[in-house]
Amino acid sequence: MNKKNRSVLVVGAGIAGIQASLDLADLGLQVHLIEESASIGGRMPQLDKTFPTNDCSMCILAPKMSECARHPNIKIHIKTKLSAISGNPGDFLVKVIEEAKYVDPVKCVACGICESKCPVKTDDEFDMGLRKRGAISRYFLQSIPSEYTIDKTKCLYLTKGVCRICEKVCPAKAINYEDKDKEIELNVGAVILATGIDAFDPIGFGHFGYKSFKNVVTSLEFERMLSASGPLGGHVVRASDKKEPQKLAFIQCVGSRDESIDHNYCSAACCMFAIKEAIIAQEHMKGLQTAIFNMDIRAYGKDFDKYYEKAKNQYGVKFIKSKVSGITETEAGSLILKYVFENGEIHYSEFDMVVLSIGLQPRANIADLADKLEIKLNEYGFCRSDAFAPLQTTRDGIYVCGAVNGPRDIPESVTTASGAVAEAVKFLKLERQDMTPKEDAVPEKDVWGERPRIGAFVCHCGINIAGVVDVKSVAESARSLPNVEHAEDLMYACSQDCMNTIKERIKEHNLNRIIVAACTPRTHEPLFRETISEAGLNPYLFEMANIRDQCSWAHMNEPELATLKAKDLVTMGVAKARELTPLKRLPIEINPRALIIGGGLAGMTSAQSLAAAGYECYLLEKEDELGGNMRNIYFNFDKDPQKYLAELVADISGNELIHIYKNAKIDAVEGFVGNYKTTIAVKNNDKQEILEHGIIIVATGAEEHKTTEYLYGESSRIITQVEFEQMLHDQDFPKPKVKNVVMIQCVGSREEGKMYCSRVCCTKAVKNALNLKKKHPNVNIYVAYRDVRTYGFREKYYTELRDQGAMFVHYEPENKPQVKLIDDFDPDSKVNVTMFDPIMNREVVVEADLLILATAIDARKENIDLAKMLKISLNTDGMFLEAHVKLRPVDFATEGVFVAGLAHNPKDMDESITQAKAAASRGLTYLSKKSILAEGTITEVNEDRCTGCGYCEEICAYNAIAVDPEKEIAVINEALCKGCGACVASCRCSALNLRGFTNEQLFSVFDALELTN
Amino acid sequence: MKENPKILSFLCKWCSYTGADLAGINRMQYPTAILPIKIMCSSRVDPVFLIKSYLRGADGILVGG
Questions:
Q1: pLDDT in tens, A313-364
Q2: Range of the structural domain that residue A954 is part of
Q3: At residue A858, does pLDDT exceed 80?
Q4: Are residues A43 and A185 in the same domain?
Q5: Percent of chain B beyond pLDDT 70?
Q6: Of all residues in chain A, what percent carry a pLDDT higher than 90?
Q7: A124 has a pLDDT exceeding 60
Q8: What is the pLDDT of residues A529-574, one digit of tens each?
């Protein structure tokens, strides 16, 4: 038995490190989160928007950062590095060095006077050198922790012994030049590495003129330019003449897919990154023309192709398939791009500005870190991991997430983070947690009967609100409203220091209701509620006025009217706040078992992870054999999938915590998070069985597209890639010897009505082609493709296949390859494939012995019924839709239900394994609790008024009301009630009311309307 | 027509309120007359709400759900 520990170390506090920490902390474990920079957040705060939803990056990240900072189980160590590790999994002794900060974090109030007086002006790293900062500074505006720190390499006093100005001006007396580096020893059970990636520095690429031509910038610099809170306030201008660019070019693969610098891999995110920047730039600047110079557009993620098509068709972004060979600068500062098409034609175009889409590379210090941890790196310098153990390093007890072991985007980083947690818990001691409030929690103040004393806080949100709305005058008008005791404007209400301000004001003015006028309650209400409960107020004594998403952003050109509207919204909010009452949240018991639907690779992996953490599950498989689609996969680049599958099946079959039901079908699902009852039927067994469980993991997979295109079915020589893989495995090729093989990609993918990429087909084609070449080196292989999407390290195999002489012929959907049987009456007829070859600029005809179609991955039809049963959603392609495409990639909006594998979107085996582990660990955050707390906003019954007519029972969509036959009154199931209020509006006796949205509270809002006129 | 009409808008927290946020995120511009009130579901809207709103001076009502 392994030794186990209750503490864990997470190295790196980007989005992956944050997610891993939150999941671990939610399991009741003690997390030490160490971060080299002065704030948690990583790369995401530097981004303006995120693809493919154009969500504001900081807005979606900020709640997670705050949650991380306030979680009682997470200890954040900033400016901290790992220095040594010893011991074994379950019992590591880690030494970390916490650098001197020279500012006392307890005393610092983050007022910023020190930085404004600091005589040093140095390039700001966060803003990519586009802005200057002092030697004393904070990393960025919403830094967590928010305190300032001194950069000892820049500080005049610490380097030259003169100055000490910050010490003099600091009103809080927080400066301490005597601060020393500290070594801390931590005893942890496991380590999760989330140190992220560096951006490629294009300075060595002289032909692109970076740093010598003023108007050539990197994509990360451009992102800061686009950001409303960035150094240019979101107003993009050329560095040379401060004029808005009219024509903008993006050059892809700068530092990626480049063997000359040993970067023979694809950086995975830059294509989408460039498309996003082009779209956002066009929104910022009317009339801007953008062009993206690329080899392939790799929009292979969920809903990415729709975004790519939108950029092309709606925004008119030009995509130019070519290689840029050089840039020259004109006298006016514009840039002339020289680019070469595949057929060798050279063209020139002039642009006002050029953005280099820089690739991702391993952290500069990763070799050093790997040495200390005694883990191995791969050929590109990323952490080495295995296709079937994608989150493990070469040392037990140390796991990876985020981009440490390969470039990946945000949702995948989040998924790997949760996945790594499922690995780490093997060496961590889990105990079922009791969530009833602890004795040391801030006692709740009784406000019943007190006169409302409202505090109103109006947020600037940088310039997001204040750029349009006159925030100060909104705060001023709030102050004049009845019962408002205190009103104030705040720069970023959600920042740690402003939340501290709110808490202080509650104490100072004895406030008993709080309203914050800021962004949307959808993202920020939980945060503020928690804040006021830390100050002793019931969390439901809080109201939010949405003056950003539904005001300043929607009325950008009408500042005066927007200010008036903001005042109205605050008036209405204050009116409601006046009527608020404290609400209680009831505990919901959690059944500690899971139901996993689908016994393929994902479902089995989830089951294995849950069992490893000591939790029981039911695994349902509709067929009579486990394995799902993986049963048809015979090859992977270095591992044998069938061997892995057999081991996995054997492992879970022998595990007493995993109850496997084959030939099983779900008849009904009832209940809710923590308390599900699922009725299943097993074939050849008359009896139904009822399973009780607390959570559900949906791992129902997907299916191969059935095509009728390209004469599929009319000759035995026209087959799919899946059939071809079987053929390779059986070594059963058509006779006589195969000479010419044509592969056609995107059959049933990336088309009108099915605008998504099936993600695995390019790699599968390359894999199968290489396999064929290995045994039959003289076969001619032609691949008709639209974009070759061998993302990440898969690129190597693509170049290998090209080197072996395979011909890649590009086609567009309006000019698809034409297929004709040579003998219409022969069921084994060879096929003539006609393709237009852009390289030779003419049609080529290949007499193919085999035509192999890369058919799409389709969503299962059964998804529709299952979605209804589980009350979860599907996207337009019929794939299951997660709660948030960026930051909640395995959760559903319905609490307690999770998704993994192909049911979510097409993906490769390593990605299914990762997501399955992630789903297990997200599920564990529930299973590991004895109970969770229900919402407070639910219906209540006034028993004196209720006549027991039962109309509400009929109307309730959640089966949360039943009329008690004896008492003849309606009774609410408080765990099931979702608080929609349909029953309230339907009640003819006014016996029902919705807590938090009562008639009285809403009436007061209408009354306030009178005030606004 | 008033210079600054007020259209009281009852928006369901799950769909139309989220939609209104999305409109903002996408910087879609619309008149400031729209005054959103977040409710848990459009089914919460009691006919009394509409009457009360008009009595208090609303110039129009939008129920989104």
A1: 999 999 999 999 999 999 999 999 999 998 899 999 999 999 999 999 999 9
A2: 939-994
A3: yes
A4: yes
A5: 97
A6: 83
A7: yes
A8: 989 999 999 999 999 999 999 999 899 999 999 999 999 999 999 9
User: B54: which chain A residues are within 8 Å (Cβ-Cβ)?
Assistant: none
The string of pLDDT tens digits covering residues A718-758 is 999 999 999 999 998 888 889 999 999 999 999 998 999 99
Work out the burial of residue A457: count CB atoms within 10 Å of its CB; fewer than 13 is exposed, 13-18 middle, 19 or more buried: buried
Instruction: Answer whether residue B51 is part of any domain.
Output: yes
Considering the domain boundaries, does residue B55 fall inside one? yes
Cβ-in-10-Å burial (0-12, 13-18, 19+) of B1 comes to: exposed
What stretches of A29-170 show up as alpha helix (H) in DSSP? Answer: 57-70, 113-117, 156-160, 165-169
Cβ-proximal residues to A837 (8 Å cutoff; 6+ apart), any chain: A809, A843, A844
Q: What is the pLDDT of residue A820?
A: 96
pLDDT at A1013: 59
Angle between the A15-26 and A909-927 helix axes, to the nearest 10 degrees? Answer: 40
Which residue from A561, A994, A999 is facing B40, i.e. has the nearest CB? Answer: A994
Q: What share of chain A is helix, strand, coil (3-state, %, to 5)?
A: 30, 25, 45
Backbone phi, psi, residue A603, to 5°: -60, -45
Q: Point out the residue among A283, A561, A955 whose CB comes nearest to the CB of B27.
A: A283
* Cα–Cα distance measured from residue A672 to residue A976, given in angstroms and rounded to the nearest whole number: 7
Interface test with A, best of B22, B32, B42 (most A CBs within 10 A): B32
Same domain for A822 and A809, yes or no, is: yes
A316 in Cβ contact with A322 (< 8 Å):
no
> What's the N-to-C CA distance of chain B in angstroms?
27
Among A565, A583, A872, the strongest candidate for a mutation testing the B interface, having the largest count of B CBs within 10 A, is A565
Domain count, chain A: 7
Is ipTM > 0.90 here? Answer: yes
Do B56 and A1006 make contact, defined as CB atoms within 8 angstroms? yes
Instruction: For chain B, state the CA radius of gyration.
Output: 12
Query: A564 and B32: CB-CB below 8 Å?
Result: yes
pLDDT (average), residues A70-83:
95
Subunit contact B17:A522, Cβ cutoff 8 A: yes
Q: Using a pLDDT cut of 70, give the percent of chain A over it.
A: 99
Which residue, of A932, A956, A978, is where some domain finishes?
A: A932
User: Which of A22, A194, A1, A193 has its CA nearest to residue A91?
Assistant: A1
Same domain (yes/no): A226, A350: yes
**d(C-alpha A478, C-alpha A483), whole Å:** 10
Task: Point out the domain boundary residue: A399, A431, A463.
Answer: A431
For residue B13, give the amino acid letter: K
Claim to verify: residue A711 and residue A843 sit in the same structural domain: yes
Query: B29 is in which domain, residue-wise?
Result: 7-64
